[in-house]
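Exercise 7.
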Amino acid sequence: MVTAPPESHPDHQRLVRVQRSRAADLISIIADPGCVVAALVPAVAWVATRDLAATLGWSGLILLFSVALPYAALTLLIRRGQVTDRQIVRREERHLPALIAGVSVLACLIVLRALAAPQMLSALVMALVAGVVTLGLVSLRVKASLHTAVAAGAVTVLVALHGAAAGLLTLAVLAVGWARWRAGRHTAAQVVLGGALGAASAGLTFAALR
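Solution. The predicted structure, written as tokens, is:
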């Protein structure tokens, strides 16, 4: 089967048509899913333990499986030419990274259970599993914004922990959605879909299990 060159792919064409926006690029960098998870995990770990050493220890373990290993695998896939770029612009290339991330996060959940981690942390990792699985399955048919999904899921988690005041962070989710649309990475529909899936899968899973 002959694969179309990257520049002919509709996702790539949308990307190259837009005029560069420094603001959108900066927001996308700050709101990278790995960065958001790296900020969220210690915040939840602190609420769960109220101990600095425990927060650092549990956070390091969770981030190893949920960020470090999946991103290392993504880097390898890029070097092998199986993925075009770090943000995985082509929907068809998202399946294998999603599978790897899902397996890695599921392994983290098993480790946490074995180490008798606080329930709140297991709930957080279960929320990550739910988010990865949901986005992975959806990507089989349509493309959704991972940036917006992770941001929306994180805000929903924080609302579950801190109440309505954390809902003000919804403005940050809107900014992330705008940035992904403005940068040509996603259509408006893909941004909305990502936000809805992130809040519903990851956020509500955490709220139910914590």
